[in-house]
Design a protein that fits this description.
81 residues; three-stranded mixed beta sheet; alpha+beta
C-alpha cells in the first residue's frame, strides 16, 4: 500500500480525519517537517482487548441454600468442647 505523506502543519489541522483514514484504510502516514520525515503513523497490529465481562454468565448453577448455610462445624472458635 502506498504511504500517504503529510506535513506537520497539515497533520495538526486534520489529526482526527487522518486517524480515521488510517483506521479505515490501514495504510501508514508519514509526517514531515520541512520535507524531512519525522514520524510514521500506522494502524495497530493487534486486535483491541475484548473484556471478559459476562463470559461465564449462565454457565454456573447454585445448588442449595446459599444464604442460611451453616458453616459452624468448619470453625474451631465456634466448637463447644
Amino acid at each position: 500500500m502506498k504511504t500517504h505523506v503529510v506535513t506537520a502543519t497539515e497533520f495538526r489541522a486534520r489529526c482526527l480525519a487522518i486517524l480515521g483514514e488510517v483506521e479505515q484504510q490501514g495504510g501508514p502516514v508519514t509526517i514531515t517537517r520541512r520535507g524531512v520525515p519525522v514520524a510514521v503513523l500506522g494502524p495497530v497490529k493487534k486486535k483491541a482487548f475484548r473484556s471478559s465481562k459476562n463470559a461465564l454468565a449462565g454457565k454456573g448453577q447454585i445448588v442449595g441454600d446459599i444464604v442460611n448455610f451453616d458453616t459452624s462445624h468448619l470453625w474451631e472458635a465456634l466448637r463447644k468442647e
